[in-house]
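If you are new to this repository, start here. Below is one unmodified record pulled from the training split, so you can see the exact layout before writing a loader.
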Amino acid sequence: MTSTEPQTYSNSISAVIAKLRDRTQVNVQARWRILDESQAEVKLNDREHIAWSAGQKVLWLTQKFVIPNDLSGYPIAGLSLRLALTWWAEAAQIYVNDQLVQEGDLFDCSTRVLLSSAVIPGEEITVSLRLVSPNHDAGALVRSLCLYESTDTAYPEPGFIADELAVLQQYLETFHPEKLSILATALAQIDWSILSDKHAFTESLLTIRSSVQYLAQEIKQRQIQLLGHAHLDLAWLWAISDTWEAAQRTFTSVLNLQQDFPELIFCHSTPALYAWIEEHRPDLFAAIQQQVNTGRWEIVGGLWVEPELNLVSGESIVRQLLYGQRYVLAKFGAISTVAWLPDSFGFCATLPQFLQQAGIEYFVTQKLLWNDTTKFPYGAFWWRSPDGSAILSLMSAPIGEGIDPIKMATYACNWEQQTSFKASLWLPGVGDHGGGPTRDMLEVAQRWQNSAFFPQLTFTTAQKYLQQIRSTSQRDEEITSQRHLLQQGTPLQRSGSPSP
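And here is the target side for that same chain:
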């Protein structure tokens, strides 16, 4: 096989995937109108965003959706319809047929609004948006996409099959490029002439899908482990009173979802927040304690808050750990073994020494992945302080993400290439201003768990996942921190202990 052949096959596969998506997905970003007397059409900028000025300026948009008979020849009657939106706005309100159905903000900035559970051609649905720009930045409506989806798991819509094929393509490109020709040849057999016969076309797609399912056997042997998360800055762009409100809203939402989705495991740090909840909402605190006892809520980060760790003194770090671990032990029955610091902007060279002496075994962040010039080269590694103290460390997946199968598959492939671990950890949940997992995220996860073209999805805790890495690691690198420089050291040992 020549070096250009895999790319040729990939291009062919991508073209078919795009064609399938066009049968059940419509970009409606340019169809919004200004909700005023003018009803003027919006103008997209060079990023295809609808932008307006900073300073808490209000923008009203409206759009009438008239359900067609088909999309590019594919009949859509009976499919559900969701409107996927992403915005950059201090406040967002979504109205469907003049009824407020959802609200969001700068960080709860993406949704999939259900417009119809079973569309009828000719049906009209009006959606209006009220968006308020941030005080410090221009506002933007970033994405507007209509998604027609099947509710029958036996007969998925072309868009879902397209995403399955995209996941398969990603894994083949990463691990088995020599097999791309098989997938490309199979997809070339799609009979587009029967597109208008919904049942016949779906049956033909399912036949082709079955014919390439054996290519995905290795995918299903892999895992993407999930851990619900909701990063919450105690103070940033809002008053402290808003922090308490966000914490209550987030924790209540998680507890409610856990009633309907018993598989959901959620983690949260910051004993300072739990102490406030204990004082002001003892009922909510008791419910959290119960979920901790059942193993469905994990207390991570044995520090009082998620602190700045470059400028503060050693004494400050000691007290963060002392007060945090004392509280967690007293209220939840055990100290935390995980230093959960996803958003701190830096870490002092001696941090492993502090953490180890506080009973912490693992360190987790994702902030170093923000570097745009000097890329951090490790995913799982031993971090050693100047005194020799070492702690198993993890560069986690990004926070504030949803359940996006393509993004998750790409991350899992990159993670496996970097670390050789076939199980990755994904952290679904709205963050920065709290929020956590949403019902739609969990429903999408359930749908993809049943796909033969996607890794196994299972919820876990941070501690269990890190223990798994420690017990199975053979190849990754140890790095040593000296004067804030991370330097390559010796490999991780199978036992999980750093080499001398």
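Two things worth knowing about this chain: The mean pLDDT is 91. The CA atoms of residues 285 and 493 lie 41 Å apart.
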